[in-house]
Amino acid sequence: MVFLLGNDPVGPFLNARHAVYKERGYADQLPTQEELIKLVPAEPNLIRRPIVRWGKRTVIGFDQEALTAMLESR
Question: CA torsion, points 69, 45, 40, 59, in degrees to nearest 10?
Answer without folding.
Answer: 10
